[in-house]
Structures are given as structure tokens and as C-alpha cells.
Amino acid sequence: MAMTFRQQSAPYAHWEYVHPSSGDRLRIVPERGGLVSEWLCNGREVLYFDQERYADPAKSIRGGIPVLFPICGNLPDDSLPLASGTYTLKQHGFARNLPWTIELLDDQSGVRLSLVDTADTRAAYPFAFRVQMDVRPVASALEIVTTVTNTSAEGGEAMPFSFGLHPYFNVTDLARTTLEGLAPRCLNHLEMADAETASQLSRLPDGVDFLTRPAGPVTLVDTAAATRLQLQHHEPMDLTVVWTEPPRPMVCLEPWTGPRQSLISGDRKLELNAGQSTTLTCRYALS
């Protein structure tokens, strides 16, 4: 089977990548936040994607894999205080709303999505940066390796950031869906209060939004379809957020580097000096 990487116009404008040996397919919309909108693995569509809502650019996207950068969650009054002044940064940052560039990886094993700073991003976040996200379908899995670089001139303030992914996964029935491997306690984002993870999991069909700090991989179990999807994440991108929005038949299983307001609280805040890079990896494995 030949690898394909081409622009397609239907069912919406996107780039299509088909893996040469497995035939697994990605659909990607670089101009809409570097969005991976589909991941077909072993003939099964793994990602949830609300195409009708996507067709209205005034609405936020529900589906695919939105990218959260340079913050995850929101800041009080959308306000980021830095040594150089106070900046306005909206929930989850700006990466998911900006056009990215796309190219085939040199070994053709996947695609590279890139985002660099602009005058607009510097008005909200006064740093020069490059984010490169390599997305590869591997055997029964999707691997995402992200490199964040502070490309600012020497001597400036260190660049603080958080990074996360917000993937939406298809499930058959929220009432017959569970997650394994989460920590026993979590932070309920709806109340910003400590909670029991088990009680949150029992409420997946009612709508949940919580963050946990698991010790290892987390598995999304769709008992109705007898499928398992395991998030294998590595420090520092090893926090896990779970979000449901009934009646949508999906669960968001999100790796984050830091909790909400990390850049203010300092809790797991990442910083890069000028010229420094860091690499963040995660993998979703299907069984």
C-alpha cells in the first residue's frame, strides 16, 4: 500500500494522511488550530467529531484533538501577570484558534504540525516560540510528540507555559463506559473542589469535568463495544483531565502538563529560557 498525503475537499477541507503499511488514516485541518479531526485505526473511527458544529466557524469545535497552549484551563479574569506586564489570555490559550503549518515527516511515518509566534500572539503572550507536534499512527496506536522551544532573544524573561491535548473519543454509551488507572482523588473543575474519583466516574452520563494525577497509564473502557483505549503519558504531561458533555457519545481523555492557573500558582509550571526546548510525549493505544 502506498502512503498518501494529500489535500481533500470532502467532507470538509482537510489534509489526509494514510499510513503505508497499516492503512490507518488521519484527517487534519492545520488552519483550524492544527486540528487532527479523524483517526481511523484498524478500520475504526476512534475520534468523535461534530462536523455540523465544525461547519459554523463562530462556534468552538467539539471533536478531534484541540491543542491547549500556552495555558490549560483558564486564568482569573483571563489575566496573566508577568514581569513585563499583565496580559490577556483566554481559556486554553490561542493555539487551538490559529492556523498551523503541516508537512510530511522525513520518514513519511506521519505529519508534523508547527505553530510559531505572531504579532497577535505576542500581544497576548510576549514570547517568541515554536511548537512542533509530530503525529504518527503506529501499530494500533497514535503517538504525539511535541517540542516547545523558546525562540526569544537571549536575556529575556523565562517563558512560562502549560501544554495539553483535548481529544474527544467516541463511546457507545456513557452509562457503559468507565476509566481505569485514575488516582483515587481528583479535583472537580465544576466546583473547583477535591472529590472522590469513583463518584465522578459514576456521573459520566450526567457530565463531568475533573483532573487527576494518576501514577501510570489511564484506560478508557467502552464495555458496550468491548474496546479499550489506553493513554500512555510521560512526565511532565502526565496529569489527566476527564470531560463529558451529554448527550454527546464521547469522553475527552486529556493529558495536561499543569493544572488550571499553573502559571500563577506555580504548581507544575514549565519554564524555558531563551533558546531552550522541551519535548512532551503521549500515546493512545487501542485494544
Whole-number radius of gyration?
A: 18 Å
Protein structure class = mainly beta
Strand content: 35-45%
Number of separate domains: 1
Number of helices: 4
Instruction: State the helicity in percent bands.
Output: under 10%
The fold-level CATH name is: Beta-galactosidase, Chain A, domain 5
Q: Secondary-structure blueprint of this entry?
A:
Elements: E1 4-8, E2 14-18, E3 25-29, E4 35-41, E5 44-45, H1 51-54, E6 67-68, E7 79-82, E8 85-88, E9 101-104, E10 111-116, H2 119-124, E11 129-138, E12 141-150, E13 159-161, E14 164-165, E15 168-170, E16 177-180, E17 185-188, E18 193-196, H3 197-201, E19 209-212, E20 218-222, E21 227-233, E22 239-243, E23 250-256, H4 262-265, E24 270-272, E25 277-286
Antiparallel strand pairs: 1-2, 2-3, 3-4, 4-5, 6-14, 7-8, 9-10, 10-11, 11-12, 12-25, 13-24, 15-23, 16-20, 17-18, 17-19, 19-22, 20-21, 21-25, 22-23
Give an overview of the whole structure.
- The chain has 287 residues and is mainly β.
- It has a single domain (4-286), classed as Beta-galactosidase, Chain A, domain 5 (Distorted Sandwich).
- It is 7% helix and 44% strand.
- The protein contains 4 helices and 25 strands.
- It has helices at residues 51-54, 119-124, 197-201, 262-265, and strands spanning 4-8, 14-18, 25-29, 35-41, 44-45, 67-68, 79-82, 85-88, 101-104, 111-116, 129-138, 141-150, 159-161, 164-165, 168-170, 177-180, 185-188, 193-196, 209-212, 218-222, 227-233, 239-243, 250-256, 270-272, 277-286.
- The strands form 6 sheets. An 8-stranded antiparallel sheet has the order 9-10-11-12-25-21-20-16, with no helix packed on it. A 6-stranded antiparallel sheet has the order 15-23-22-19-17-18. A 5-stranded antiparallel sheet has the order 1-2-3-4-5, with no helix packed on it.
- The protein starts with a strand and ends with a strand.
